[in-house]
Amino acid sequence: MSQKRMIRTIFIISFVFLLVIGNDSLIIPLTGKNASVNIDLESSSGLTLYLDEEVGLSIADQPNNNIGYVSNIPGVITRFRQAEKQGSIGLIAHNYLAGEQFFNLGVGDFLTLASNSEDTNQMFEIIEVKEYQALDPRSIHSKFRNLDTEEIISAHNLSQSIYGLEDHLILQTCIENDGDTEWGRLFVIAKPIA
Question: What pTM value is reported for the model?
């Protein structure tokens, strides 16, 4: 079995498992090169995230039945439905595509979420950047080690602590280390500016 076919099979089995256990289990999606699966389900949300005045990333909707789906189109990030259920705006991207831009962001930077159909913008200020090592990098249910505190946390608790920040904007991508594209996770956390 080819590596691509094996990854696709693991990906499908993971989501069948999630469908069976329901939405009570929170996950941290994979956003590295090995997690990319071609699915022709791109649907624009009508929103664009501006990282600065020149870099705008289109936002695709995540399919209703696939909470781990991440767009594999350059310049497109994916709206993470699970985050919305927890009260935040979660945007996820592969670290070798649009997510690569997330590593250039830091505390104090500003982000703009713009509607393509209405003349409305929401500004956010980055208040924190967190990095975690995935102890089981290919699993959406991995335990994680906080790289600052060394604390070990479950995917469920990490998802609650990150995506449970009401009205905050969360950017997520994978961290590559020693050729492992899913070694860790980067979270860029931004608060809304009134």
Answer: 0.79
